[in-house]
Automatic annotation (TrEMBL):
It comes from the Bacteria. The keyword tRNA processing does not apply. CDD domains: HATPase_RsbW-like, PAS. PANTHER family: STAGE II SPORULATION PROTEIN E, STAGE II SPORULATION PROTEIN E-RELATED. SMART domains: PAS, PP2C_SIG. Gene3D superfamilies: 3.30.450.40, Histidine kinase-like ATPase, C-terminal domain, PAS domain, PPM-type phosphatase domain. This is SpoIIE family protein phosphatase/ATP-binding protein. It is a multi-pass membrane protein. The keyword Chloroplast does not apply. InterPro entries: Bact_Sigma-Reg (IPR052016), GAF (IPR003018), GAF-like_dom_sf (IPR029016), HATPase_C_sf (IPR036890), HATPase_dom (IPR003594), PAS (IPR000014), PAS-like_dom_sf (IPR035965), PPM-type-like_dom_sf (IPR036457). It comes from Streptomyces mordarskii. Residues 543-764 form the PPM-type phosphatase domain. Keywords: ATP-binding, Cell membrane, Hydrolase, Kinase, Membrane, Nucleotide-binding, Phosphoprotein, Transferase, Transmembrane, Transmembrane helix, Two-component regulatory system. Residues 228-293 form the PAS domain.
Length: 893
């Protein structure tokens, strides 16, 4: 506790209170109260006596005037015997008015009335001057000391109607008789004074106690020391303090506030508006409002202002203001803020630049982060091998990078065009930075010799915008230069400095890592895309069953597993396939190729679509079992496939499906139909049989096979996409396959598909019945010759004379083979399309085999001859047996 907090008590007991300020104030106030009460009593007494004399004079004069001017007074004095008439009236007046004597006298001074009867008839007595004035008819009021004490006498003349003086009335009053009323009230006056003294003493004691509590019993010496201490603290503290009166006058100011505000020596006592302060600061200080940590400028300083009212009861009796200089703190804060912004810039750059796996996207992200937070103009240029996914090798001269991204330049400016190759001379900062492998800072790039060769327009443009500094930094990763980034600042900002050089280096390091990742990704993506291109059909085969077109759109940033195929089948038929492998990347592409190959092999068996899907399901299950034994294997269960066979002779289309790929049918009249196919699980799940659905299609019907990437995307479900697909096909029923693919990609395809897209559109054809000939063959070897002759006539009727010889040989061997090894019924069918197809069917399921006959064998050369003369041949099985077919090329093919 401070030594000023409480004064020690003296052994003198209560007398020690006189040493404190409160005790001294109590004694002083008590003495003053006694003096004031005594003075008040004396003043009241003196005033009472003064008013008693004045009252006696007024009373005596009033009575004398009233009696002298009363009716009949002049007549009674003029009567021969006036005393009897006046005596009773005078006595009544004396007693009624409370005066001591009422005397009526004549012009000779003889008393006509008197309170004492013996004195009636005698001359009036008194001071000579007073008597003389009375006898001269004057109105007088005089105070004189008589034998009974101080008295007041008033005389008023009595005159006739014509103004002749005939006598007078004299009224006397003793002052002592009037003072007696005052003397009677004097005890009350003294009692009131004593009460006032008691109240004043009690109030003084209470105030003294409060002062004693507030001053903690400090004496004058301690109070003086405490004041000196507080004054020293007030003027030595490093914070400005001002005390203002309610009217805005400056009552107190310490040295710090005087220095901060640059106040004059005589500032105290003047109004705040007269101190020469800045208007906004003077207005604030004069307002008297509550202020907390408001920052205001005062010259070249920044002051933090706090202001509070000095009245704790709430009345605005004044205010106290504190000022704190934060100029240096603001400078440090500005530097800290600048450092924070730079750290945030680097943090944002790390997040945004790494968000893209594309070379162009990575460069653009650097530009977006750096403009305008770090530079006004930014260019990013990559070396040519990087764009191909390769790793550049030194030397890098001549430096001719590819401009990949530009920021801070209006699109209409004829400079810094993306996609151009920029050739830098060896003296340019860019060449020096690449050669040194470090950033280069230049604060005055005004020499046109330092600009890229042939880029005078850029030099003029940048100089016109007031470019005053640049930083160019190579994009290096693992010691390999991938490109360079150049940062420019114009007249709008401060020139680059060494700190900015470090920031540019950090941005370049982060960008180089992401560019190298994007380069590797681009290379791997190109390899996977190349693999996928080799696994997808490079072209669609020629056949007579359908007119077909296709489209494939890879997923954004990845290679998917969607695929399609068109497989010609014997008998003027064609297989249409659409499939989807889950996942992306090399595994999806390779699996897609395996499944496509498997489907082609299963198609060679010429079995129904549901059998093809069943074989494919078994294959996927077997492959996944192999992958389960490999810790790094990837399962392909969940793949989908849709397989459809269209027969151009019968117009029959049979289809089966596993998983998601869909099909939509458009008939020639424009109606759109979605075939009702039994729901089947994706490949590899097993457990349920696959069912085929058959439809009869007229010519010019359109079959649209697709994967779900065509329908689904962000914010869109498969159902919504299917509705769009239906409406698009209904709107344009006459489009060909290629136009249909283009229309669906324009109208149905989402802006950002969720997966890769495979689309196959086929318009059906029907073989003209005139190009189909069919006969039943008797089960007799003698029937071979007649049937061969009939077929030859048909071929000549079709205008195929050049094919008759080969066709007769093929037909003869096929029929002979069926009659020898088959069972009835036997039939033959000729189909004329782009090739001549000869089909011989029988009721057996035995499979013929091609073999080489020995020179001594009499038979076994039939299939060998067919294989030599036919373009293709094979066997397919039907529910009622088998068909052996052979295709012979026409028109010299």
């Amino acid at each position: 506790m401070s030594r000023y907090a409480r004064a020690p008590r003296s052994r003198l007991g209560p007398w020690s209170l006189l040493r404190s300020v409160a005790g001294q104030a109590f004694v002083l106030q008590l003495l003053l109260t006694l003096v004031l009460v005594a003075a008040a009593v004396v003043a009241v007494a003196v005033d009472a006596h003064k008013h008693s004399t004045l009252d006696a004079r007024r009373r005596s004069l009033a009575v004398a005037e009233t009696l002298a001017h009363s009716p009949g007074m002049a007549r009674a004095i003029s009567d021969d015997k006036p005393t009897p008439q006046l005596e009773s009236h005078a006595e009544a007046t004396r007693k009624g008015s409370g005066v001591d004597s009422v005397v009526v006298f004549d012009t000779h001074g003889i008393r006509l009335t008197h309170p004492e009867t013996p004195l009636i008839g005698k001359r009036i007595v008194g001071p000579a001057g007073l008597v003389r004035d009375e006898l001269n008819g004057k109105t007088i009021t005089e105070t004189f000391r008589a034998s009974q004490g101080p008295s007041v006498v008033s005389a008023v003349p009595v005159t006739k109607a014509d103004g002749v003086f005939i006598g007078g009335v004299s009224v006397g009053v003793k002052v002592g008789n009037v003072n007696s009323a005052v003397d009677r009230r004097l005890p009350l006056l003294l009692g009131s004074g004593a009460g006032a003294l008691a109240l004043a003493t009690g109030g003084t004691a209470l105030m003294s106690g409060r002062v004693r509590r507030q001053t903690r019993g400090l004496g004058t010496v301690e109070m003086r020391r405490m004041y000196e201490h507080h004054d020293a603290v007030l003027h030595s503290v490093r914070e400005g303090v001002l005390v203002l009166a309610e009217d805005g006058r400056l009552l107190l100011v310490n040295d710090e506030a005087r220095e901060l505000l640059r106040l004059a020596p005589d500032a105290e006592g003047r109004h705040i508006g007269e101190l020469g302060l800045e208007p906004h600061l003077a207005e604030l200080l004069a307002s008297g409002r509550r202020v907390t940590d408001e920052v205001h400028s005062c010259g070249d300083r920044l002051l933090v202002v706090n202001m509070r009212s000095t009245d704790r009861a709430g009345d605005p009796t004044g205010s106290v203001v504190t000022l704190r200089d934060t100029t240096a703190l603001r400078v440090l804060s500005g530097r800290a803020e600048e450092a924070r912004e730079r750290l945030k810039l680097l943090s944002d750059a790390g997040v945004r630049i790494s968000s893209s796996l594309e070379l162009t996207g990575t460069a653009e992200q650097l530009v977006d982060v750096a403009v305008p937070r770090f530079a006004d103009i930014v260019t990013v240029e990559l070396l040519e091998p990087v764009l191909r996914g390769e790793e550049p090798e030194p030397p890098y001269e001549p430096l001719a990078p590819h401009r990949t991204a530009v920021g801070g330049i209006p699109p209409e400016a004829p400079v810094f065009r993306v996609g151009e190759r920029v050739v830098y001379a060896s003296a340019t900062p860019q060449s020096r930075a690449v050669k040194a492998g470090a950033a280069v800072l230049q604060t005055d790039p005004t020499s046109t010799a330092e600009w890229p060769a042939g880029y005078g327009a850029e030099a003029r443009y940048l100089l016109g915008r007031g470019v005053h500094s640049l930083i160019t930094v190579p994009l290096r990763f693992r010691g390999v230069t991938l490109g360079l980034a150049t940062f420019w600042r114009t007249r709008r900002g401060e020139p680059f400095d060494e700190a900015d050089l470090a920031i540019a280096g950090e941005l370049a390091v982060r960008t180089a890592v992401c560019v190298d990742n994007a380069r590797r990704y681009a290379r791997e993506h190109a390899m996977v895309a190349a693999l996928q291109r080799t696994l997808l059909p490079s072209g669609l085969p020629d056949q007579d069953a359908v007119e077909v077109a296709s489209r494939y759109l890879p997923a954004q940033g990845a290679v998917g597993g969607s695929w399609f195929d068109v497989i010609p089948l014997p008998g003027a038929r064609v297989a249409l396939v659409a499939g989807k492998v889950p996942g992306h990347g090399v595994h999806a592409a390779a699996t897609m190729g395996r499944l496509r190959t498997a489907v082609q092999n299963f198609s060679a068996l010429d079995v129904s679509p549901d059998e093809v899907i069943s074989h494919l399901d078994e294959l996927v299950t077997r492959l996944d079992l192999e992958h389960d034994q490999d810790a790094h294997g990837s399962r392909i269960t969940g793949a989908g496939c849709l397989y459809a066979i269209h027969d151009s002779v019968s117009g029959r289309c049979t289809m089966a499906r596993a998983g998601d790929p869909g099909i939509v049918l458009t008939r020639p009249d424009g109606t759109v139909h979605i075939p009702a196919m039994p729901a089947s699980p994706p490949l590899g799940h097993g457990g349920e049989p696959f069912e085929a659905v058959g439809l009869s299609l007229p010519a010019a019907s359109r079959l649209v096979l697709y994967t779900n990437g065509l329908l689904q995307g962000p914010g869109r479900t498969a159902g919504t996409g299917l509705d769009l697909l239906r409406r698009a096909l209904e709107a344009e029923p006459d489009l060909g396959p290629d136009e249909t693919c283009r229309s669906l990609f324009d109208t149905v395809l989402p802006a950002r598909p969720s997966d890769d897209v495979a689309l196959l559109v086929a318009r059906t054809r029907l073989l003209d019945p005139e190009n189909v000939a069919e006969w039943a063959v008797p089960f007799d070897s003698a029937a071979v010759a007649p049937i061969r002759a009939t077929c030859a006539r048909t071929l000549r009727a079709w205008g195929l004379e050049d094919a008759v010889c080969t066709a007769e040989l093929v037909i003869s061997e096929l029929i002979t083979n069926a009659l020898r090894y088959g069972t009835p019924p036997v039939r033959i069918r000729l189909l004329r399309g782009r090739d001549l197809i000869c089909e011989v069917s029988d009721g057996s399921s035995t499979s013929p085999h091609l073999r080489r006959a020995a020179t001594t064998d009499e038979g076994g050369r039939g299939l060998f001859l067919i294989a030599q003369f036919a373009q293709r041949w094979g066997t397919r099985y039907t529910p009622y047996g088998k068909v052996i077919w052979a295709e012979t090329a026409l028109d010299g093919r």
